[in-house]
Amino acid sequence: ERLGYFKGVNVETPEVPGTDDQIDISFQVEEQPSGSISASLGFSQGYGLILGANYSESNILGTGNSLSLGVSFSDFQKSANFNYFNPYYTLDGISRGYSAFARQLDYDARNIARFTTDALGVGMNFGFPIGETRRISFGGLLEYTKITEGIFPAQEISAYLDENGEESINYKMNLSWRSTTLNRGIFPTRGHSQNLALMVALPGGDLQFYKVSYDAQVFFPLGNTFTLRLRSELAYGDGYGDTELFPFYEHFYAGGFGSIRGFENSTL
Q: Phi then psi for 17, rounded to 5 degrees?
């Protein structure tokens, strides 16, 4: 059930005829759709007009590998993404994934600040199981970023660009630890999950900075109908080495329907 490939799983353990110390284990599973092709047209208060198309498959030809391709267009974001992931790259459960993206973000349209960023990136990541419910992942990302000031930008933006320039190439390293005991891969009703992640822009690139984040959630079943979910997010970022100012476009933002209600999108 944790794989997310099956709608239902039933396990039976009949005794082996003629023995008193052996059983057979019989699994009956009902698969559920693991892929989708979608197109979207909509309007959001936070993003304006939204156009998009996406293809995703989490179980390519029954291999367990996943692939996703997507494009998105809105007042805030124009992007194209590619992701491929093999959860069992080796027999020991080591995973390997590839990713590539191109995106343009207009932060003025998101009510954040008056600037835009154009970015290109390619990356690779690996994962190692350290227990039945815990996993360590690490990887690298090569990213190019160009920043364009808008009309009347904040002084912080102008000061940062005067010191670091409009364009940068960074070598990012990612390290994360994840633990999950959720009973299902989709719509869990009990268990918990935790994720601790570190991202470092390494020396050798144009900028040096880091971000640390932690998120957790826990599910409590309330009878057979309802489930109580509690969640938290913590994050911190700063520059180091030759980068005195933490890149303003890497800041954290909150507010809005999916974050903190009562505040406009990205006002915190």
A: -55, 135
